[in-house]
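Researcher: Let's continue the batch. This sequence belongs to Glutamate synthase (NADPH) small subunit, and it's 480 residues. Same format as the previous ones, please.
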Amino acid sequence: MANESMLKFVGREQAYPAKRDATHRAEDFQEIAGRYAVAAAEDQAGRCSQCGVPYCSVHCPLHNHIPDWLRLTAEGRLREAYELSNATSTMPEICGRICPQDRLCEGNCVIEFSGHGAVTIGSVEKFITDTAWEEGWVEPLVPGPARGLSVGVIGAGPAGLSAAEYLRGYGYDVHVYDRHDRAGGLLTYGIPGFKLEKPVVMRRVERLKAGGIVFHEGFSVGEDARLDELRQRHDAILIATGVYKARNVDVDGAAAEGVIAALDYLTASNRKGFGDTVEAFEDGRLDAAGKNVVVIGGGDTAMDCVRTAIRQGAKSVKCLYRRDRANMPGSQREVANAEEEGAEFVWLSAPLGFEGGEAVHAVRANRMRLGAADASGRRSPEVDPGGEFALEADMVIKALGFDAEDLPGLFGAPELGVSRWGTVLVDSRTLMTSLDGVFAAGDIVRGASLVVWAIRDGRDVASAMHKWLKNKAKNERQAA
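Model: Same format as before. Here are the structure tokens for Glutamate synthase (NADPH) small subunit:
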């Protein structure tokens, strides 16, 4: 049966779920693609070649059992496929939506190398888990036998939520502290609905709350309680704050009104999607409607800003990036989606200054060219002499990446060890920081990265914390 269902890639074309027409989808914040019908999901899963060395799994940070759940899907065994996909990931339907599959699993698919087009792994993963939610196959979070120990998790993003789920499963009392009024971190406030509709995130959070994890929302560590106070409340602490400090562009006019940070802009838009009142949106500061918008940057956050501005009714939307299309860090699929929706990319361009006095009205930029390769192997951009130009702009969005905030200062914990970039230092084996019983994981350790890596880090740190807490309890029993 299995062999008859698989290896269909030679005669069966690659087919992603149909995207909605660009004109219509650019008018709302709903996800742009539909979901497979059952037969289509089975057909596409059946294209998998079931290779001996599955590069898709190797290149997945979670090492998901991809060929196995593709085979089960092709055979119509959807509940088993879901259970297997769920065994390695706390958020498979979220990864299916927002992972850059073109750089990870699908980009390393063996049949992609053979010229037949990769298996549509992400779309099948999304289909499996959405079906599981609809059919009631997603089990409640069942806590392990109570250990009488508690853990505090600082940050309710993907790393913190993933760790919290595993720790609750081990039997710990888990308290999650987050500065926002809703859990989810960047999943909730950073990623637009057209990539990840918010009910998809909220149902995950509600499942954790129903499993007994206590959420302290609107809680700022350092203001509402210092780190040492939380250490006294709990037997172990996890720092999983992510990195939120926007990188600045050091040019004239950077402080002008209308020059804004990407996360401020995206958070305001996502809050409006929840129905919140956002003063800076209502008064026009964070609303692109009717404006000439220039986004600076070439990563996925820049793509999110570009596509959000289009949906808000911007007059024009341009994206400035200092390298060319081939050397940009963002997903090529996202670039294609943005172009379909009406964005214009100005490649090999870098800002020179923002004009307009108090309020920005133009961006001066330099033409760039690619020089020698840097340490990462990418060719470094350099100024192309005589290539200066200007773009009309009423709103400039800085999407140049994120750095760590000053956590030792914010948390009132000067003894917390950090790197020269501000990321928290951990022991590579125990994942513990310089403070006994305080662990860290996710972007606050590795720097700005992918959601799937944050989920993996959350899984790893939960295991490390469990081991440490068991040893601590054992030593205390022996001492008594």
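Researcher: Any comment?
Model: The domain at 248-398 is CATH 3.50.50.60 (FAD/NAD(P)-binding domain).
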